[in-house]
User: Fold these one by one.
Assistant:
Number 1:
Amino acid sequence: MRRKHTIEDQPPRPAEVSAEEVIAHLAAQSKPVSIRQIAHGMDMKHRGRRYLPRIIQQLKRSGAIEELHGGRYRLTGAKNSQRAPAKAPALKADHAPASSAAPSETNEASAAAKPKRAHDPNLISGRLVAHRDGYGFLVPDKPIPGVDGDLFIGRDNMEDAMHGDRVLARILRRRPDGRAEGRIAQIVERQHPTVVGLFRYGPHANYVLPYDVRLHQEILIPPGEELTPELSEKLRARAAEGGSTSAVRAASRHERLSELDGSVVNVENTRYPRGGMAPAGRVIEIVGRPGEIGVDVEIIIRKHGIPHTFPPEVIAEADATPQRVSEADIDGRRDFRALPIVTIDGETARDFDDAVYVAKLPNGHYELQVHIADVAHYVGRGSPLDKEARLRGTSVYFPNRAVPMLPEALSNGICSLNPKVDRLVMSAIMEMDAAGKMVRSEFTPGVIRSTERMTYTNVFKVLEGDAEMRERYAPLVERFHLMKELALLLNAQRVERGSIDFDLPEPIIEFDEQGRMVSVVRSVRNIAHRLIEEFMLAANEAVAQYLEKRGIASLQRVHEKPDPKRVLEFEEMAEAFGYTLGVDDLSERRVPVRHGQVPAPSRAGRRERGRMRAMTVTLPGSDEVDIRPQHYQRLTAKIAGKPEERILSYLMLRSLKQARYAPALLGHFALATQEYTHFTSPIRRYPDLIVHRVLKWALENPEAQAPRALAPLLQGHGRKEEDSGPTLGPYRRAELEEIASESSEAERRADGAERELMEWKTAQFMEGHLGEEYDSLVISVQKFGFFVELVDVFVEGLVSIDRLEEMSGMRCMYRERDHAIVCEPYRSSGRGSRGAAGHIFKIGDRVRVRAERIDPFRHRVEFAPVVLETLSATAPKSRPRQ
């Protein structure tokens, strides 16, 4: 029987021409050109000329190029008076992946960066967020005029793009409700130089199944490319024992190596998907076996692209840093070593950014000192340490592991404010009046010697009167009570101005001595947490106000006003519980769509649709809604202590925008303040390190003053991000914008990784509790089911609508007007349906559920409601005739 040959069986042939090279060539042309001119200009050989028409047609179908009269071609959107060719910008060295991407994809990124098209309002740049079902959304770099939200990309319009890629997309259709649909026109930059997945041997080719379900293609592994250096060495050793190298290599193509089959591997992409051809790669690392302790963390780290290995030059610089503070370091600093300064952190914390001290002044005021590790003293701007810290952006914290922003020699060593040793700090000294209002602040480099390494638990015990703790920390007892006094005043000041507090618990996994999970519990916050939170908020705000008053360019932590449509969606949810934000002009308005018609809903009990009627779109009553933090604050006070507090607080949080970093003064909505920055955690956040450098520059240049320093303060919340703003300081505006964007993205990446690993861990924990019943609360209702949160164990999971129908024998559907799932008996001519009763599931309902299974793809717990087992006995099982 003739053997079937596959692509993997054949030796690779060098590509004569690629679509990316054609795009690059067209971008450099001053006028449209024919196929023959393209071939001549690219100096193509015979095979390249033969395949060129096929590539031209592919590019034409994808919308990347357009054909003009006479068979000439140009980039889509380009005009006849085209520009001279420009050199493509090189990728930044400090952001290049450790393993280089395929050469063709490098050309793709360069070629895509070359064209400077005439402005085309329908060509949008952004990042592609794919869905596991094949479609995706383009998150635009800038809001699309006339389009609400992201650009929808159907599965047939995804082309060869992968999740996370930076792309150009063309708007195909604008819908009356403000949404839009588009098609990927060009891939600007690939996001996945490596992919983590499960290695499988196949009958014709080996492949890797990505753990990220948003990566839709399997990664083909050509013969021999599955061998890591360690495996290759093992095979060479076997060959030396009694066989030729070629024989062993041939055998390895058919042998299933136990180290590989079913293992988690990291794959370097050597070919990205193109023209329907699957991606290919080579195995560069065997991570471990699924289910082994620690492998889940390694998968999440690689899946989210978190840098986790420090380059040799970074380690060398960190190891060369002295681990003791010298007299030369102290020279010129204010000495705080005689004061009883303490750090207060969690029990498992190892890096201590901040230390605090509170004293009562003779005039009845309070003095608050916040001392922050002077990381900028040890991490020079532009050094290998600095470049790596910028690349990482933030430390990432998992339940039993941390991926630090800085090497341990700094993060847990000389930069950490460890007790009983000298440490360099940047100090914020603030004076508050008897009501907790700040009346004065100053900033200085300093040196401290922390008296005690306190924990939240022990400080709380001291404040609660625990005899053992009060005796153990007797010299500090009065100091802690003074801290509590000031913290409550500061909190009252924030509440008065409208600051919002969402006290939402977080899941905490408890482990035994062997590292096995024993429970998932809710985090508990006490007054000791509030002390540090209030003191850090005060220091951050004081630094931001000082730099803004001086007119010095820095990074702001901004939180913009919520979108009126999101607020309206929350109002609809809150009404189901009898609450409202009380925002004026938020009443919805229904706008008729010209020439649009939709069928009227059918009457109850009838399956056929009603007659056609005019189409309308629901919008907020006003485009500019006067929404203030006080609206949220009043509602949080109303629901405090109520059963629905957890759900409504979560829904309120979802209605708000996500906080981010920006060089512009855009205000912080949730904190109800205009100036706010991040200054207090330079060991684990890169923006804080930037703010430290800016503050140091300001203190070293006391006479420097921007001519328009007061202008931003006068503009208030109406200031636009693209305004020029202050330009004084060590950083240019453009550089700050880059750092802000990178840091915001790194923060989202870390949050996503931490959240996903917690889901994995809770799913692993629940695997040992399948079949058990729990009391739960419905916290969210969707078209595909509803999510519940268990009462006794802090675990969330899904009750799918398919499972509801299967268990009840009823028809279950999502009712949009009150966000509920309604289960009704099927219509039947038999008498059995007469006594049957339906069931409605709404947000806030208490439901008894049974843990049934773990979704292997989403690592999500799936439950079944016990209440439906009794209903199913009376519901008719036969479906109506279609």
Number 2:
Amino acid sequence: MQPSRREFVKWVTASGIALSMSRLGSAEEAGFAARETLPGRQNWNPAANGAGRIDGVAKVTGAKLYASDFRAADLSGWPATTSHAILVRAPDATHVYTGMDLARLSGALKPSVVVTAEDLAKIGTRVPEFYAGDLFCPVGKTPLYLGQPVALLIFEKFDAFDQARLALRDGTFVKFGEETGPVVGPNYGAFRFTRVAGPTPDAPDVYSPVKNGWVSPGHFQDSDRPIWARLPIPTGRAYAEAATHGEQIRAELAASNPAVLVLDREFETQSVDPMFLEPEGGIAWYDAGTKNLELVLGVQSPYETAEGLAYMLGNARVPFKPAHIKTLFAYMGGGFGGRDHTPFPLYVALAAIFLPGRPVRLAQDRYQQFQGGIKRHAFKIRTRIGVDRATGKISGFAADHVLDGGGLANFSANVASVGAIGAIGIYDIPKVDITTVALHSRGVTAGSMRGYGTLQTMTALEVLIDEAAAALPLDPIEFRRRNALKTGGKILTGNTYSVSVRTPEILDKLSNHPIWQQRTQEKARGGQQGGIVVGTGVACATKNYGSGADCSRSTVEIDPQGRIAIHGDHVDMGTGLGTALANRVATYLGGVADEVTVHEVDAYGALALVTSGNSYTMNQATQDAAAKNPRWVPAISSATFASNGAHVGTQAAAEAARVIFRFGLWPAALDLWGIAPTHPTAKQWEAARWKDGQLIMPGLAPLPLPAVAAKAHARNGVTGAMAHAFSRWGWSRATFPVVAGQTWTADIDALAVRRGGGKYVRLDRSSVKFPPTDNNRFGKVYTTTCGTSVRVEIARATGALRIAKAYSVFECGKALVPEVVLGQAQGGFAMGVGYALFETLPPYEGGPGNGQWNLGQYLVARGSDLPLRDLEIEVLPPVTPDEPPKGMAEVVMIPVVPAILNAIFDATGRRFQSLPVTQSMLKGVLA
């Protein structure tokens, strides 16, 4: 049974481990903190539009920010010498593992310590439930998957480590015996999403997941596939109802009806690597005398990582059980989901535990990252779509998805459900039936990655939409326009979006853009030249953001000189979160922060938060009872992923800044203006604005920020605020007694304040409204939309494809940092090109699990493959000036892939139903 976080913390304390999650090392706070603190306005270089990056100089000049940069000598208080470890992985998953050829590592290459499954059993480690399976494959068992670790080799000298690393690269070091075939495991998750709309748009659904609940199929027997048909057994009636409606939808699509265009197609997507710039790495030191374990890591989920480390070692025997674990979190050179709940930190900790007294660095090179890093799921998709020929409206849709989850469950079940829910994209379809299953296999583990299943399913969808438009025939954009979901329309799960839906605007932008307007002339130009074929493609996609249990914690402070400091618990994965925090806080406090720290997860003790239960599965009664404790929240911390940085990661900081302004700076400004608290103007604080570092109020003299801050401190007003925010498809909202006789209501559920230069004091909320637990059935209510058009030129003789021009248009609410938004869109375009045309990993033997893969075999998009000077990015302005930021970092990748495929069809007349579409495939079509 998965313990609640509250129960977990109690258990950790009872077992004798004090768990600490911090950016600051106990022995060297100044050094590590200084490296990980962004310099704020000291390196502020705003562009003409007022944007800028506070982290830009540090990152491009090679400041020691990233986890893999650190050695023991960089961490004051640690021993100066760094030892090194190698994680040995199995390149075979169909034969019994019999051991390692350690004789090859003799003399100077001999490791100081070898750690195996037997050693873990002896000291009493446990595997955190999320990573269920053997941390090391034991001798005598067949590995669960290709690339499963079998041992840690630890070397005290770098030269020995370096030579051994090269000596082991040929893949023959790990030995195998009897052939058993792959280990067969249960699937990771299976769901059916069925919706039958009511007779009118305003009528209740006949059936939907929100109305009737989420369902999974039953089984007659052990099988690697679920049985989707309705079973003749008394249990599972909820599923049987979904199956009845679903099979009726499929029967209607299968019926011979000349008035309905029906297309039945299959599509396959490939396994790919996140290919972040910095492979996973970390360093750890276990002081056996004090029983302190310290680690430097770069992960997307700091809170859960620290919990997992404590759980793994919580029952270990002396002297392998630390009394205290301190995790220090550094920046990451990219994540893309591949560092969200990765087991790699567990091995970093084990390396230190088994060589006490010596800091040990475990860092993967690119070969090792390919062999063991989390991958994107490969999908097999079958889709059927029905379109009324007279109206061009989609009448029915059915699809079946099979995901290859690889060796560990990771987030496979979640990816399956998100991909299924997103499978109808931007469209309003009255009858939908989708089945999805994530399977265990011997492949390298697949998990979260940018797009999270929707990239796969929406690529298949948008290619099919183009084919349907051609068959009707209708202009592809007009066909999309006729079927686009409108504001207030219901999505697959049966709920509506709670944010703006701007698909019509985006489709109009695509339609009116020169790339689309000139497509006929450009195609003719290609025909006249003879050596090339030219095609234009378009696609439009929507992507949810948020997980349904998102949290953020932040502290914001201002000193008497007007200097601002921000501390946040979300992680910067290259997404510019630090700058986003600075910009959002500047709206309320009038200046760019002088220092910003991110991934700081242990700086909020004043809130004294507690939690219990599972925020995804608890019922309303449980939540209501728990909420009576003013310190209780549904979840304390959550992982950072691409689409929740701006929306979630800055929320607590923004609300903390509002508290400082309202109860610190605003009363101070009234004093400076000589306005009494009882004067009507005193209630007009929302009308005040900051401009060029001065507080502006109509009819009053501008006030510089330092003067206002100094007065706030002198008055002992609120000069610091610490807040916690929680979202379950809507923010928690609570009321707090900030000053005598005045309360404050905001989209947070915990608050502590500092007055003047004093200490933080928790304010117990007087009321709170957490989002209803029933929201867990929604699937998604936050979404952003992106459309892309591309023009390609393909050489007839060679099949070489050039993207001549491209255009992406999307919306993201209020763009906190326009430069970062632009960078995300450009990066998303490049990733989409790589996914469509180059990147692929064989799933099993011959694939990355054999340890032989590097960038020589794995092709990614390079500058020469991209329209560097001919990519136009347009960001729609917010609907209203105060529209909140939306998560857009994932959606900007998705339509790129089908737009390229649709352009290839326009150029060649051939529709490709699998990825990637390589140069040799194009040459074969054009020969």
Number 3:
Amino acid sequence: MNYRVCGYLLLLAFLCIPSVAFPYERPQRIVVVADDNYPPYLFRDRKGDIHGILRDHWRLWEEQTGIPVDLRAMDWSSAQKFMKEGKADVIDTIFITQERLEIYDFTRPYATIDVPVFFNKSISGINDISSLGGFTIGVKEGDACIDVFHQNGITTLREFKNYEDIIRNAGDGQLKIFCVDNPPALYYLFKLNLEKEFRYSFTLYSGEFHRAVKKGNADLLALVESGFAAISEQEYAAIDKKWMGSSILRSVDYHYFIYGSVIILILFLNLGYINFLLSRKIKKKTDQLRITIDNLRISENQKKSFIAAIPDLIFVVSRDGRFTDYNSPSPGMLAVSPEDFLGRTLYELPLKESFIRESIDLIRSALDTGKIQHYIYDMVVPDGNKTYEARVVPYDSDSVLWISRDITDSIRKDEQLLQAQKMETVGNLAGGLAHDFNNVLGGIIGTTSLLKYSLASGQCEPAALIHDVDTIEEIAKRGADIVTQLLSVSRKRELSLDLIDLNQSVQQVITICRNTFDKSVAINVYPFELPCYISADRAQVEQVILNLCVNGYHSMTIMRGRGEKMGGELIVRVETVEDGSGFHQVHVDAAGRKFVSVVVSDTGVGMDSYVQSRIFDPFYTTKESIRGTGLGLTMVLNIVQQHGGFIDVFSEPGKGSTFRVSFPASDFALPDVQTVEAESVVHGSGLVLIIDDEDIIRETAARILEYCGYDVITAADGEKGVEIFRTEHSRISGIILDMSMPRMSGKDALVELRKIDPDVQVLLSSGFREDPRVQECFEIGIHDFVQKPFTMSELASRVHGLVVKEVK
């Protein structure tokens, strides 16, 4: 007796046996719950109506049993919850798992379902469950595959309500790997035109569809089984044909089949003979192909070995910033562990927003233009704070190679070499600076002695006295300028890009040169008639110009041979370079951009071609008669290249040298800054506290302020100043505070003063505005700054502004 006949008999028994003989009470209706997102078994149309194979199965079951079926279709996780809460009698489309066996009794299986793992075509190497480690995998809430993944140690799962949501997210690039039962997977991949974007290489497992009832409800289980057993094979086949379709091949006439078979047999025999003739050639080609494959395998292994030997970080990153592969020489070089970044995007990692935004722009630019992009960035990794130089290289149509090299030590060495060269420059200028300072001191001492003599002898004509005082003031200002210029050249500082005018930088350097170079060298400067703006670090650009001027000066003095006349002419020009000139033909990378050049020429000893080929090498020098590091032109080249510029050299022995340094021009202009200096002394009133450890400065400032109408209290160090302010702060209108003092520095004193009165008005005084401590004091809360040495009008104007703020 076959299964269908048994089903009829069981059904007949349930329908006909009296309740007295059989205690099971036949249900008036049953509620069935199932997954509503599982085409072609069960799914909803655009109106929300339920369709599919199972809808038709249960309709036939109703006809066979006479029991109405309330088929409820919903998200799978909701369906399981609905069943567990006792709101449904039967759950359909369910796989058997160990956990479910404890709460359900199952019918016989009615369909076998393959459960593959799908992955984006851009990913390779997915061939078994172990290869999924580290990837985020999309799954459906409540699906049996979740247990399989957990049993194999795969926990990076992202759950969705239904299969359609999973595949739509994959199509939007939010998922690269997902696990979906084969029937709905193929349905939605083709429906959403994604069938060419995803692949699968292995089946995670094969499950079977069952229907299940609550554990122990054997009567209901038997009723369900008998109802479906009563449905005929023809009826099942009709439903399958309705939803699965039929082959597109039409039936052919039997005679045509025979004729075709004969023709095919003849063709087969002919092809067999041809195949025999070709077999030898095919074997030969196969052997050649095998050799080629072996060579390719060797080549691939060599490629992997080369990559592993590279001391750089290498990442494969997609257009949307998702990491798909990597190579790292050391785990300490990674800011995030591989299991935390593989399969994830930059947006999902604990990185700075600015870094993420700039990185995505670089990736897209590399893919869109096909050109390598460069990027320098800082990153905190287990090995410490590091600076990396990245090259972003197009890899395929949707991915790039992000290659990062640690340049922390290189940058540190460059900074040390730059500072060493600055100190060498200061040493080269020392003789001229000493000579110029002696001139300054000689002028001050001579004029002072003349003034004292005039006062002692009674020959005190007012005009003469004013002239002598003006002379002392002018000479002192010249000395102050020399000190400021020397500090600008020698101070170590961080790279800071600003908009600067090359004309002004040249004038600043030439002032130093004229104060220090021997008078046998004539200096001529030809600035450009308009401002020439570049985006650069002012100190480094002026270091470049000064270094070239010093080299030119040496070539006309200490590098000349015995008996040769010292001196010559140093010419400095500022020029613009237009697109299409010979400059752009030499420097192809500069095409399409405007540049501004500083040209430094001398009439010194010149260079031959060999020397020219080595002048930028570290530690190479031709200055045999002096001690030099040989780093000057090396650092010049380094600074120019850091600013995206170029350097050209033209020289002949005995005819001097010309160096042209070119920087990219900026399209922006600096706003006009009007500096207004008071021409007359501003008077005021109030009590001012002066804190300075230099007696001369303290006494001079006190006298100036007393002349201007102020009352003055002085303190010789920070501690005394703080104590005075503690007792007199209610009377004091403002404070002049020195930066560098013993016992308590100006910065520490400022902190203590603000503890006493947070609104204290402080004017900071120092000999160097670029001192980093000055900026720190501004951040703490000073109100103004006056540069030492100061004039009476400058100090009076600054103090007046301070007291006016205090009154307001």
